[in-house]
Amino acid sequence: MLDSLKDVIRKSSIHVCLINTGGCNGCDIEVVALLSPRYDLEQYGIYVHNNPREADVLLITGPVTEQWKENLRRIYTKTPEPKIVVTLGSCPVSGDVFNQEGGCVYAPVSDFIPVDAEVPGCPPRPSEILESILSVAPGAIATKGRQRK
Amino acid sequence: MSSVIWYLYEFAKKAWIDKFTTAKSEKEIMDKPDRFRDFPQVTKENCISCGACTAACPTPSAIKLIRNTDATINEILTFPEIDNSICIRCGFCSEVCPSIPKTITCGENHEITEEFQIIPTEIKYVIDDYLCIRCKKCTKVCPVDAIEEQDNKLRINQKKCINCGKCTKVCPVKGSLKIIYVNNVEEQKQVIKLITNTLESVVEENEYQFKDLDKNSIFRMQIPIKPLKDKCLEIINMEDLVQDLLEKMIDRLNLRVITWDMDKCNNCRLCVAECPSSAITYNKNDGVQRDIDKCLRCSICYQTCPFYVVKFYNVRFLIEDDVILITVQSSQLSRS
Amino acid sequence: MIVPIGPIHPALKEPARLKLKTKGERVISAEIDLGFVHRGIERIMEGKPWQKGIYLSERVCGICSYVHTQTFAETFEKISGVQAPLRAQYLRVITNELDRIQSHLLANSTFFKSVEHETLFMYMLKMREPIMDAIELLTGNRVNMGWNIVGGVRMDAKDEHLQKIHEIILKLEKEFDTYYGMYAEGPFLRLRSNKVGRMSKKEAIEGRAVGPIGRGSGIKKDYRKSHHTYKDNFDFKVIWRKDGDNFARNMNRFDEIPESIKILKQAIENIPSGDTRIPVEIGRGYGEWINEAPRGEVRYMVETNGNLIKNISIRTPSIMNIDCCARYMLNDAMTVSDAIATYASVDPCIACAERVIVTNEKNEKIKIYL
Questions:
Q1: Where are the extended beta strands (E) located within C195-308?
Q2: Do residues B250 and B223 make contact, with C-beta atoms less than 8 angstroms apart?
Q3: Domain count of the fold of chain B
Q4: How many CB atoms within 10 Å of residue C193?
Q5: Contact C295, C349 (CB under 8 A)
């Protein structure tokens, strides 16, 4: 009874922290576009706060640059449980065009912190982000919340 | 109080509660427009396995050419596979795809016409007209008809060429179809320098063995190719290119070796004035000195020296399997 | 006391660290730390064919990605001694102005978010979405468009697309007046932005402020006036103000939107027919090109050997504007919350700015910013 109540609450109130680990900014503004009245992320109970200390979902955009190697782990440890990590765009998965000779990136993100879901595209459309976050985030958070006990 | 009642009345509507529990964006918002450039679609059957898409892709490894080894299909297919997690959806691969109809399609794109040279090249194919025997085997095998005949000469139209390399495989004359790597010219120069320097030093080390060589006899020796190749691979890490360079360089290399027997020198200083690059100098303490770095190996000193101090040899090289065969022959030049 | 803000902070959308030195509630001086998004993009471009370089230049910055590809293409066209066909030039103008409108709306929306005026934030984003639709309709993608190429543009626009864009613009024009009024005459927003974060004209010249930020302080410079397409075919005026505060900067961006709409209308009306792309034999040598990005001037300096990029240097506007913000605007004795609003009013684009070489004049050592 308590578990199912917790599940409902966890599913309907998700706080997102957006971390730009060195991307080109394209994915970030698509997330800002998601906040707009047209897509209206908040009607699903998802709030983008940019505060890792109260986040349930870490949304990571960008290949990992020199400065983020340590900081990303620190942010991850400071996020309370249960938490899931979703990567946005192709940079965090593969490094994209930056992962070539001469580039100064340390992709993928999964080398540093565990990743639960990926949204491909450079950058993904807001509707694609919305679809994949909705299909992954609520369920994953609920199951993770049960596991921790 | 009235406001509380108003709120309750407003939010207690059934439609509102329904929307609250099952929020959903409208379908037309979620739909992609017609002109949207989505991930590329691959039609496996059309592929001519030229590799133009992999060469053109701006990302390092989004497109890979893979071979279908499925036993149920009789024909073995080669086709590009696109990794969605790296693809940036630029649609460039579909633009450069030369097959008709296109193997890769990606949204609505500019229809590419012949006059656009689009594939970013690292390799260029050039026909050496001097060696070409005009058998026209390459024109038949070329998938995009890039090899044209003009004034009874075959030449490759660089604007059409997709760098598939099929022409080199059928060409019966070695060296007639040349591959030029345009990307790392500086490194190639270094490799060529390294090859000549090492071979020269090897010959100079073994100088004592052929010091008293007759005019008519030849001296043979051999060295393994492996250490030289490893050194080259440190500079350019491309197996094909290094092998290609080694073969071309060593087959053509014709070294001239000049030896000096200082015991016989009488300090006549005839050679000092003759040397075109002023590599030979004289001062009182050291006598006649030759600067190896400046020396052009022109053999003028050999021809002028009256005391047989200077000796001159021709050295030729040949690659056979894993060894380099070295042949030393005394010079046939006449002496004044 | 020093108040650190960022790199992950509710008020910032990109990673940068603000160090505000405060006395009581007032900010005395500030320092902005960059370097979180350095990817070495110029170094990656070196030795690559231009066809790949154009897709890399697009990813210098996500918000003004279009103008980077245009400048890249025009630099190569200058080196090769050709000009794109007139229809392609017109299509470039249309996309550039659409991009400018969406960038200005986004910049103002972040300012309203930072002064906690959620309503206008939402209105701005609501206005922005149809513009993004228009861009997607024309180029095939919302952000990184992949639409320019040396010698023209990749896809031709059909008449129905241009008609649709015209409708979207007319609708925007109607909507725009209401929201413009809300900001220009709203008393509370004026209180938060008027006479906050001032920068005089002298300071702006000293700090090399460009774009709407420089024009907000009285520098009447717009590189569109010297661009060949704009100069010959379009009639528009340069917006500038002399106050140099947050209000002036935001109003500048607002006022540029009707000018962009004016240009768009002219472009859609007079667009010629013909080719959209010509084959280009890439020349050898060195070339330079300046364009007016939404945030100011963007300059490309390219050296090529016919096919490959030998050397490239990109100068983006954000680095000068961020420097001006740290040096002059944040010293204007404001509260901490105003400091964040001032920082947002500069429209900082960190992804643009991160290709910097810091030189130390004293001991003549060059340190490459990582």
A1: 284-293, 296-305
A2: no
A3: 3
A4: 25
A5: yes
Please, what is the Cα angle at C63 between C58 and C64, to 5 degrees?
Answer: 60
Sign of CA dihedral B234, B236, B237, B241: negative
Q: What is the ipTM of this complex?
A: 0.91
Answer yes or no: do B201 and B299 share one domain: yes
Give the H or E element holding residue B228: helix B226-235
Which residue in B320, B296, B315 sits closest to B209, CA to CA? B315
Say yes or no for a CB contact (<8 Å) between A120 and B87.
Answer: yes
Domains contained in chain A, number: 1
Locate tokens 């010091």: which residue? B211
Using a CB-CB distance cutoff of 8 angstroms, which residues of chain A are in contact with residue C349?
25
> How many other C-beta atoms are found inside a 10 Å radius of the C-beta of residue A134?
17
Q: Are strands B41-42 and B104-105 parallel, antiparallel or unpaired?
A: antiparallel
Question: Which member of A27, A50, A65 has the closest CB to residue C39?
Answer: A65
Collapsing DSSP states into helix, strand and coil, what is residue C57? helix
Give the domain range for residue B61.
Answer: 21-120
First to last CA, chain C: 28
Verify that B222 and B177 share a domain, yes or no: no
pTM over 0.80: no
Instruction: Determine the Cα–Cα distance for residues B273 and B278; give it in Å rounded to an integer.
Output: 8
C342/C194 Cα distance (integer angstroms): 11
Is A132 touching B (CB cutoff 8 A)? Answer: no
Contact at 8 Å (CB) between B29 and A127? yes
Contact C235, C112 (CB under 8 A): no
Query: Each residue's pLDDT tens digit in chain B (336 positions)?
Result: 788 888 888 777 777 777 766 777 777 777 888 788 888 888 888 887 777 788 888 888 888 887 776 656 666 677 888 888 888 888 888 888 877 778 888 877 655 555 555 666 667 788 877 778 888 888 888 877 888 888 788 888 877 777 777 888 888 887 778 777 776 777 887 888 888 888 888 887 887 777 777 777 788 888 888 888 888 888 887 787 788 778 777 776 777 778 777 778 888 888 887 787 778 888 888 888 888 777 777 778 888 888 777 878 888 888 877 888 888 887 766 554
Give me the amino acid identity at A103.
G
Side-chain-facing half-sphere of B194: CA atoms under 13 Å: 19
Strands C284-293, C296-305: pairing is: antiparallel
Query: Which residues of chain C have a Cβ shorter than 8 Å from any chain A Cβ?
Result: 7-15, 35-41, 43-44, 46, 55-56, 59-63, 65, 106, 109-110, 122, 125-126, 128-129, 132, 142-144, 349-351, 370
For C137, the 3-state DSSP assignment is helix
> Which residues form the domain of C228?
40-323
CATH (domain of A103)? 3.40.50.12280
B97 lies in the same domain as B203: no
Q: Is B90 on the interface with C (CB under 8 A)?
A: yes
Q: Are residues B203 and B324 in the same domain?
A: yes
DSSP class per residue in C259-275: HHHHHHHHHHHHPPPS-
